[in-house]
Write a structure and sequence with these properties.
homodimer, mainly alpha, Arc Repressor Mutant, subunit A, three-stranded antiparallel beta sheet, DNA-binding
DNA sequence: TTAGGATATTAATTCGTCAAGATACAAAAA
DNA sequence: TTTTTGTATCTTGACGAATTAATATCCTAA
């Protein structure tokens, strides 16, 4: 990789520091919000996935969120104990298990999601819509760049739902 | 807090998703780099602090990085066992303990920091300098906004080294 | 059939946090 | 003064959360 001159490097270090602080303030705030619903950021995202895209095999969830295979059982167990999801066998392949939202899980998410979305908007209210569009464009470019450079084995991934 | 219309809300959700994915790609990449030096993101940042700003009392470090008081002992222990830092009493207050870089810690950091800085530049190379400056401005604004709203008890913090 | 891989769980372990405790300082009361 | 009360600092030990490595079951293709 090409080396940067001292000045450019200093700019990069400044940017990474601002990013770290912003991320810590923003995601910290969102995590506290999610915590108030009795969930973790991780379990919230899993519920969100099931809510928006229906049942998923355990392994898909594990992949999507980079949760180790040994941990995903533990995580799904917790959600199952709370009554928000259930495990269902997948016909045709008895190795797989589908995770699906229960009625209770759905209505709980119906309840908390709008609140959380409002918290997100509150936290992002310090930028204008124009700035937000600019952020989306640039941050996407960076995220893509990094993921593509790494993912030398994932070329066939869903590019219509980028970075998802 | 004022509520957003559906369209604005959708923009916010888009932005937060892009931010999450970007952060996970970027910080994941940086963490893997740091991991290759046998450190965690947290311990790396502590070494960086001691390197740039000299010895710090344990409690300052604990505060700065929001590490619980029970955990900071554990973290400093690990760095001490590796020989990178040592604990020294602070004259005048026997409750406090200073954490300082050892010679070994300093030369180790001398060695790894330039490598890590290069990794940072590599990961940020997908944005132009102009875009980076724009990012710094907007992300700072968001980070400030969130921190200031929360920190109703921290008005007296160091604003010349913002969000640090 | 059999060999190899995919999927999920279990058990052991590691990691980090919390609550409680030990010590020291500082300020107010006696 | 000295005593008391409250607070700050750090560590300890018990605990829970999350990961790893090993295991059980199942599928696919040679």
């Amino acid at each position: 990789m090409t080396e940067r001159d001292a000045e450019g490097q200093a700019l990069d270090l400044r940017l990474i520091r601002v990013m770290r602080n912003m991320a810590s303030a923003l995601f910290g705030s969102l995590e506290r919000d999610i915590d108030s619903y009795g969930l973790s950021a991780e379990t919230f995202q899993i519920l969100e996935l099931l809510y928006n895209k229906g049942p998923h095999p355990i392994q898909k969830i594990s992949d999507k969120f980079s949760i180790p295979s040994g941990s995903i059982t533990y995580v799904v167990d917790k959600l199952e104990k709370k009554g928000y999801v259930e495990r269902l066998p997948i016909p045709g392949d008895r190795r797989k298990t589908n995770v699906t939202l229960t009625g209770e899980g759905r209505s709980y998410f119906d309840n908390i999601f709008p609140k959380h979305a409002q918290t997100i908007s509150d936290n992002l209210s310090f930028a204008t819509d124009e700035e937000k569009l600019e952020l989306i464009a640039v941050l996407k470019k960076i995220g893509y760049g990094i993921s593509d450079r790494q993912g030398k084995g994932n070329e066939n991934e869903n590019r219509s739902d980028p970075l998802s």
